[in-house]
Amino acid sequence: MSLLDVARQPKTLLEVARNEQPSRARLLTIAADLQSEETAAAERRASVIQAAISATGQEVKREMQTRRQSQVSELVREAVAEELAYQEDEFEKEDAVIQQAASRLAQSVQQAEANGHSSLDRHTLKKQQRDRLPQRACRSTPKPMTLKDRLSSFQCEQLTTTQKRLFLAMLVNEGDTVGQRKRCNRHVIEELAKDKATRQLEQRRMLRGQSRAARYAKLDDERHCRFRPKVKRVDGARSRSADDDDDDDGREQGTQDFVRRMEATERVRVEQLRRTRAEREYNARVDKKECPACGNPQSYAELTQKRKKCPNCGVSYRSRLAWSEIADEFLDRMEQHLRARRQWQQEKALARERAAEQREPKPWSLVRDEFLGRVQLDLLQRELTKELILKELESECSFRPSISAKAQRLALSGDFDERLRRDLERRRQRAEQYELLRRAIASAESPAVSGAARQRQAQVKGSFEERLRRDLERHQERGGLNKKPAASTTTPSMIIATRRGRSY
């Protein structure tokens, strides 16, 4: 059999699937083996890397420890050598700096003995104190170094008193040289910051000989304000002399005191306005706490001072209506309202459904008597109340107009009540005619009807008008009306009055 014959042989899908199943199983086993080998190789690599990292870290740690120990040992050796050198060192008595410091100390002592204790004038003493005070400099001015800044605590304890004095003299000399450095000149900076108008104003003041500082907010106040009130001095300012106000310092101090008093007054005014406004807002509230015993509401002062008890009764203030007191009642009312609203909505939906349903109209033969009875009853009620309406109108309207002949001819046809009565009468007569005609036709079609039946059908309880009148009488008896229906008059004046009353 050749390859072409093998290829031409038809193979089913079942045979192909059976041939592929063993090859698929072999592939799965090979893939699982490869994956397990890769996992084992990755674990071996990770373990090798971790071991190398730990070994390197230990070597670095040992090297850092040895380096730190060597540095500490070197520092200890240097400190010991410095301390030994300091202990073996001696001060040279012939040093130029020490000789200069000793001469300065001796010179200061001689000057103090020569000057003595002489009493000075108060103004002279104040001037000397002012000259001795250091000028105001920048905050960056360096301070002279003290003895503790230069020496350690051990060195300070080992020095004798003479050595300490000489060392302090050296520090004073160095401080003088350091203090000669340039400092910020605030006076020059302020002069440079002034504009042209300020310089001209100062020049004019110098020419006039009035070097007054700006003490007021307006030029008018500065020109006319001359009153200087006596200000009570505090304890710290009692030692100052009374003529300090003539100096620039006293004038500046007075300006500062005035500004301070004005600021205090303004603060008091603003605080009073704020308190008044807050008290008004608090008084307008309706949820203020009150005393349950006497009903006294909590004031604004008590609220700000956190006083929670009534001064009269000693009982703690409470809210007028607490939620815990009205919660149950309020929730019950809300539940009842929701229940009633739900019921009302259901009834409204049912009413809409009933109205949507179309009812069959009743025939005229069934509603005719009822309708005509209502109309006749309304007519009789109009006649009963007609006289009362006319009397009320005549009492209010005293004017009686004259009616023309044309209006009288038109009024002969009658008013609305007359026309309604005639219409009802015609309808009643027509109904009776139709009834007689129907009976005649029925008697002609059924001759076998007995005479007794005809007699019962002919019996009439009364006319429609009689039955209606009896109903009206019964209605009047129920309503407490004792008047009988009066005869209607159809004069033109009454017709016009009736129309007016109906329109009214």
Automatic annotation (TrEMBL):
Residues 327-354 form a coiled coil. Keywords: Coiled coil. Residues 108-144, 230-259, 472-504 are annotated as: Disordered. Residues 108-118 have a biased composition (Polar residues). Residues 119-134, 232-242 have a biased composition (Basic and acidic residues). This is Uncharacterized protein. It comes from Pythium insidiosum (Pythiosis disease agent).
